[in-house]
Amino acid sequence: MERWRHWFSPKLFFPESDQFVGTLLSLFTFLVGFIARPIGGALFGHLGDRIGRKSTLVATLLLMGISTLLVGFMPGYASIGVAAPIILSVLRFLQGLGVGGEWGGSVLLAMEYGHRRNRGFWAAWPQMGVPIGLILSTVIISIFSTQANFDTFAWRIPFFISAALIVIGLWIRLRVFETPLFAKVKAAGREASAPVAEAFQRSWVEIILSAGARFVEQAPFYLFTTFVITYALVIDVPKAVVLNGITVGAIVELVTIPIFGYLSDQVGRRAWYLIGCGIMAIFAFPYFSLLNTKSPALITLSIVLSLALCHAWVYGPQAALIAERFGTRSRYSGASLGYQLAAPFAGGLAPIIALLLLKGTTNLAALGLPKVVVHAGAGSWQAVAVYIIVLALISFASVFGLKELSKADISGAEEVVAAPAVAID
What we know:
The chain has helices at about 1-10, 10-15, 20-50, 55-70, 75-80, 85-115, 120-125, 130-145, 155-175, 180-185, 195-215, 215-235, 240-265, 270-290, 295-325, 330-340, 345-360, 370-375, 380-400. By secondary structure, the chain is an all-alpha fold. The model is unreliable at about 1-10, about 360-380 and about 415-425 (pLDDT under 50).
């Protein structure tokens, strides 16, 4: 348990908590950023559909970058008491606002330039930021977590380094032109006056189903990259083995994400994603079985497969799957909401639910989970595996209700899907 506290750093901000509660409190601080994401999606979605993709992306970068940098200057509980976790939560909330608006703009810049063909391939490139960030974070943490002064100062260095990324990102975005599809809408004076309301009015079913489609990707991702570290410590596997596995998995995912995005253009986005839901469900139990061997080689194999195959299979085509559902006038708003509405439930809660399932100290029915989860070995890894399967089933049902739009023309200003309907093919 002490090593859980070390990884999530609860003693820096919640020193009076017991070990398990301290870990949960740090995870709830993690959750705050996810709660902010739908709000950021709505706020910056409105701006992106009103003033443009480029300008909004600059704003989200500055908000997200500056709030991240400020975390590095945060005093701990020993210095300012309860104000420390409160300020940390505020900064996490601001980060979440920025992230909530970031995804839609970056994806639309890529997809609206390459909208005529291979949208899945082009929209997959912004998704590469996740494995790149994962590689950088695990490498940096691996380096600095071994420092004797990690808890007092070294943990701040990765946040200071993020300042360089702000400068690089700002330089790139200021040099990018507005997308041709939105430029055409703006030149004609056809911007939506209330794009968020328009997106909900015309495509609310698509927004809800898009959010459901994310459960199979987002929640398992945080289980595969965050919870797995906790689980490895529980089964007495060195943290370095897991971090190295995550790094290798992220490197391989740099290749599989664009490949799977491209293949979704050929096979059909909906069919490809449905297959991915099945792969995720099938892999849930083998994933933990490989981890439980405690063999470094097999642990690395399980992590690489979880990221480069299971996660990348759905994450590669996901951007196009969601963004191509909405018309240009409200695409930033619709895509951002469809993507970010799942964040608090599928992202922020995932490590918490998994930890509680593993610990077995909660009333799972109160969390709204099906009874099958409650009675499937609560307090064990089997319960977490069933949780992954439930997530895959939610997304399978959601994507089954979406239309296939891989080859649809999305250049019009009006909505792409006039009346969402279940497609059976």
